[in-house]
Each structure stands twice: as structure tokens, then as C-alpha cells.
From TrEMBL:
Residues 13-201 form the BPL/LPL catalytic domain. This is biotin--[biotin carboxyl-carrier protein] ligase. GO terms for molecular function: ATP binding; biotin--[biotin carboxyl-carrier protein] ligase activity. InterPro entries: aa-tRNA-synth_II/BPL/LPL, Biotin_CoA_COase_ligase, BPL_C, BPL_LPL_catalytic, Transcriptional_repressor_C. PROSITE patterns: BPL_LPL_CATALYTIC (PS51733). Its EC number is 6.3.4.15. It comes from Amycolatopsis albispora. The keyword NADP does not apply. It comes from the Bacteria. Keywords: ATP-binding, Biotin, Ligase, Nucleotide-binding. GO terms for cellular component: cytoplasm.
Length: 273
């Protein structure tokens, strides 16, 4: 990963980011940026600070699941954001923004990809998992969030346990991407995310006002599906996914015909996308 090239292309004042660092290895880029957000000596990492690792030894996905991050095989990055224009409640829609940026990049690379609510990117005809997003709000008085993205670029040499619903893993290379140059892909991803995130921020986190909701609905393979929602407490809610609202929540039509809004949970698609 060429840190100098990324900085030249993306750092302020000409680019959108305040800082970009690339490290050879770390436990978790999300954990590192959470720690850098407010340190004991009073230092605070700036809004739109980026950390990229060539390898993560303790990468984490949703619900504390392992995210396999072998050296040189993917893009593992986190962005620290301090969107003062967005309320704490509005931060929940940020994963939608990141998902759209990932779909933008996949399209640029010639890869067929769709979104699985709330935070997965599925690629190829078999709709295997290619990327995931983890958004974590900061525990501080100031509004802040660390957004992590894991994107498989090259095939993983180790066996990866299937995700919820038995989703296998895949990579951009396996789906015929026009390039597997990780510096170029990281540049494309950070550029796409900055464009989407600036619109989201200006709209106060409202996806519809930002002009992002229609895009998400178009790319979301969960909509129209029979699904089973595994809730954070381990319960299961069956139904049909009928919509995503302006805050990024999934709207479910239950077997009894009622509508229920789902803020968080693992989605299992019950029929092929």
C-alpha cells in the first residue's frame, strides 16, 4: 500500500481527509482510532482521519465476530468522523453511506455487487460476501464515530467460516475486478466515501434529503426478500423486507401483515437474491 500516493491524492487542502496513515500491522484499525479520538494527554485525532493496515490481527465485525484480515489480501481501513451537523441518533445511517461507496467502487472495477442490510456487500452470481462495515460511536461528549471497512481484494488462503445465513466469502479478484492494486482501490474507496459522506453530513444524516436513499433501495438485495432477522438478544423475527427508511432502518412486513421497523440485527435471506 503506497501511503505517499494516497496522501498526495486525498489529503487536505486539495483532498477531503485530514490525515492518512498506513501501518504494516495492527490489532484493529477501529480500536486504534477510538483510542486516538481522545488520549490521556488531551490529543484528539481530527475529523476525517484515516488509518489503513496491511494486516489486522484482531479485526472485528458486527457482534464482535472475527474479520479475517490476512497480510496483503485486502483493504482494512477505518475513518474517524466528527460530524457536528448530525445528531447522535443520525449516526446509525452511516453504514448505508459506506455500503454505497463500496458498491460505487465495485462498479468502477467491473464487479457485480449488491448490498445486504445492514452492512454487507455481496458480489458475483452466487452473492458471496466481499466486504463488511462496522460503525462505532465514540463514548464522549462530542459527536463522533469510527467507521471500519473490510474489503477482500485477493482470495483468502485460509478457510473462512460462513456468515449469517451460510454466506461464503469471496474477493474482488475472484469476481474479475479490472485491477487488484490495493493502493488504487483504496483511493477509489476513500474518494467515493468522501463524496457520499459529505452529502450525508450536509443533510444531517437524513438519507433521503442527502439523495442517497433511492440509491440504497436500488442496490439493496434484501428488499423484497423473505427474511429472518436475528435480533441482538438472540431472538428471531420473520417477515418480508419491504423498505429502508431515511435513517437506514429496515422496514419488515410480518406474517400477520403488520409493519415493524428493525434498527439492528443479522439478516438471513430465505430465498435467493
Amino acid at each position: 500500500m503506497d501511503e505517499a500516493a494516497l496522501r498526495a491524492a486525498l489529503l487536505q487542502p486539495d483532498g477531503p481527509y485530514a490525515a492518512i496513515d498506513v501501518v504494516p500491522s495492527t490489532g484493529s484499525t477501529n480500536a486504534d482510532l477510538r483510542a486516538a479520538a481522545t488520549t490521556d494527554d488531551g490529543f484528539q485525532a481530527e475529523d476525517r482521519t484515516v488509518l489503513i493496515a496491511d494486516e489486522q490481527t484482531a479485526g472485528v465485525g458486527r457482534r464482535a465476530r472475527d474479520w479475517r484480515s490476512p497480510k496483503g489480501a485486502g483493504i482494512y481501513l477505518s475513518v474517524l468522523l466528527r460530524p457536528r451537523e448530525v445528531s447522535f441518533a443520525g449516526l446509525g445511517s452511516l453504514a448505508v453511506v459506506a455500503g454505497l461507496a463500496l458498491v460505487d467502487v465495485a462498479a468502477d472495477l467491473g464487479v457485480d455487487a449488491v448490498l445486504k442490510w445492514p452492512n454487507d456487500v455481496l458480489a458475483g452470481p452466487d452473492r458471496a460476501k466481499c466486504a463488511g462495515v462496522l460503525s462505532e460511536a465514540l463514548s464522549s461528549d462530542e459527536i463522533g464515530v469510527v467507521l471500519g471497512i473490510g474489503l477482500n481484494v485477493l482470495p483468502l488462503k485460509e478457510k473462512v467460516p460462513p456468515g449469517p445465513g451460510g454466506l461464503p466469502a469471496t474477493s474482488l479478484a475472484e469476481q474479475g475486478a479490472r485491477t487488484t492494486d490495493r493502493t488504487e482501490i483504496a483511493r477509489l474507496l476513500l474518494t467515493a466515501f468522501a463524496d457520499r459522506e459529505s452529502r450525508w453530513r450536509a443533510a444531517g444524516g437524513d438519507l433521503e434529503r442527502a439523495g442517497l436513499l433511492a440509491d440504497y433501495r436500488r442496490h439493496c438485495a434484501t428488499l423484497g426478500q423473505g427474511v429472518n432477522i436475528i435480533t441482538p438478544d438472540g431472538g428471531a423475527v420473520p417477515g418480508e423486507a419491504v423498505d429502508v427508511d431515511s435513517s437506514g432502518q429496515l422496514v419488515l412486513k410480518t406474517p400477520g401483515g403488520q409493519r415493524r421497523t428493525i434498527f439492528a440485527g443479522d439478516v438471513v435471506h430465505l430465498r435467493p437474491s
